[in-house]
Model the fold of this input.
Amino acid sequence: MFHSELKKSGKKGQLTLGGALTFENVEELKITLEKALGSFKNLTLCFRDVEEADFTFIQLLCAAHKSACTKKKILTREALPPELEEVTGLLGFTRGNGCFPEDKSDCLWRESPPGQ
Amino acid sequence: MINEQSEMFKEEAFELLEELETSLLELEKTPGDTDLVRKVFRALHTIKGSGSMFGFEEIAGFAHEVENVFDLVRGDRLPVTKDLVNLALSAGDIIKRMLEQPGDDTALEGRRGEILGSLQHIASASTPAGQAAPTPLPAEPAPVESPTAGGGAAVEVTYRIRFKPSTEILRQGTDVKDLLEELTMLGTSRVIAHLHDVPTLEELQPDACYVYWDIILTTGKGMNAVKDIFIFVENVAEIKIDVIDQGPLPDEEETGYKKLGYILVEREDLSIEDMQRILRDKKLFGEMLVEEGLVAPEALESALAEQEHIREIRKQRQKDESISTLRVPSDKADKLVNLVGELVTLQARLTRISEQSDDPELLAVAEETERLVWDLRDSTMGIRMVPISTLFGRFRRLARDLSDELGREAELITEGGDTELDKTVIERLCDPLVHLIRNCIDHGIEAPEAREKRGKPRAGAIRLKASYSGANVLIVIEDDGAGIDPNKVRARAVERGLIKPDAELSGPGLFSLLFEPGFSTAKEITNVSGRGVGMDVVKKNIEALRGSIQVKSTHGKGTQVILKIPLTLAIIDGLLICIEEEHFILPLSMVEEIVELSREDIARTHGGDIANIRGKIVPYLKLRETFDISGTPPDIEQIVVVEVEHRRVGFVVDQVIGKHQTVIKTLGKIYQNVAGLSGATILGDGTVALILDVSRLAQDAELEDAADYDEG
Done:
């Protein structure tokens, strides 16, 4: 099971995710992210009590980031907990440059995340 | 050359078979472990591929058939059952026999057919109705490469791997994280995910994969090991593996790596024309490429990572070149040890000559040579040291099969597998340990129901532990079974006339009778044990290694057998002693102390052959009498006190000369069965000194002592 909480903080939104962020829950996670991105122009992702995370979740966050970029919205994240840091490192997501040709500085997995 | 390659294949295949067996035994315990299924599959796949390449077609064909069945397992179409594990273990045994005895063997062929028949039966029964059996994997040989270069040092190779899965890969149950983790475990790596095909959240099918990877991996495990990781995804991914760096530096000055542009062109991420055009500008090359939209930022990042990785690897290689591993045939190592042995003998001669001369320069050279030879000796002996885990691994299968056969439940637990022993010692320990483990299961561990009645867990535990103890290694085999009934041992010993009915014997002393030829307290004789043939042979084998064996047991609770084995057999530290002109060597590790024995001391005990050392009585053996050496003993003799099986025994000699580096030479056939001698060595003056079999002599001393006691 995963858990989520969407909060408003000023004009910004804050989506907190935790639990099993894995293949089994990825459909529901997608819906949660879509709702959160639909509700705010500026959304920050937070992670609490992450038990497990896999590739599907990391890819899902990439897709969410791409959606945000194309809609001129801002999606940032707080520092990753060790569980997620390990997975992103292992899967080769961590990088120095941005991932979009349009904006070479922007990527959710940049070692110094934008917005921080 | 072909023969050499065949031998290399055999060596690799034996290792793979060991891996196969270990994985199967683990899989039996955890049938859902997909990593283990992969390991089994991989071992069979590699045996098949290598076998085919080196002309072992029959082995390749057989491995291929077994592999097909495990293809069903990995596809979740066949469960892991005990029957399947049994058949796969038997298949491994057959491959081993085919490797050991190539050629026609009708019985083996029959057994092979039976196994394949049974495997096919299992496979067909488990394949869903209407679904055809899976197509066998193509029979072309898997590419094989030697993990060593020219039979020498293992070579670290850097691979560029592009792993481009189809979108379907996740739906087929592949966890790319596990796959990449397994890959990166092979060595040093950089993983770069290409994310530009990831769609927006709205377009994303969350169970599809839109990412592909570049992995720069430096490993000494060889191309096969890298390819093996992808065995299960070959059909759902594009996999491109290129060697981008290997072997020693091409040029000492060129510790850098290819320019960025060349990497991108080589990867087909950039055309050579665009590269040349961009180079005419003066900005940073990578920056210009991204600005021009010719290369995606992550393609650039990936290429930069490759460049950086190779630079680091080359720098590291410069540092580490002396720490690489060599794979040397054991006969070459044996020859080296023999040569070092000769050198030690020669050095002793040089030392002796230098001591006799008054030439200080010669003495200095001799001392320096001695120091170097001792260092060389230690280093050479170190080469022969092998972890005992190589031996322990073989017993898991034995314990499993025997438990099944005898209706027992027993688990073999090993500890101290990293304890190292001389290769020869390890080889010669195998048979005695097999016998002792068989005994544990056959006589020690009770039937599960009986254990429950006694308040024990159904499954018995057999512990096999190794640890260092000075110049020796202690190997303990213990079980939590029924233990040995001392009354039965005593009764049997009396019945066989080994002890008198009123003899006061208990503990290890009593249990040492178990090592008497033909001694057994088992009611039933099984084909496993109980014939009384074996424990005496075990003891003989352990003593042949200059080791000792001791049994401790608590009736109803369990038994412990302790083996004390010297670390090495080739060269030992000895104590040189003499009687008249005859020289003998005692293993120094067994010597506790040396005390004087005067004629008055002898008179005080009325010829009782015992000495009172600090209030403790120590029986002694006069070696002059044992070896029937004529002449008159000196007024003051020496007692060399040794410890054997936790008892102190003395050996009376004329003179103790001192410590001696003893290169052990085996005795000729005529002398091999002479009691009390375990070998010989050559002294500095060219004469021969005999090496005493201290355990055997102590045992004889004890028997004589016991006989005197009984008669008295």
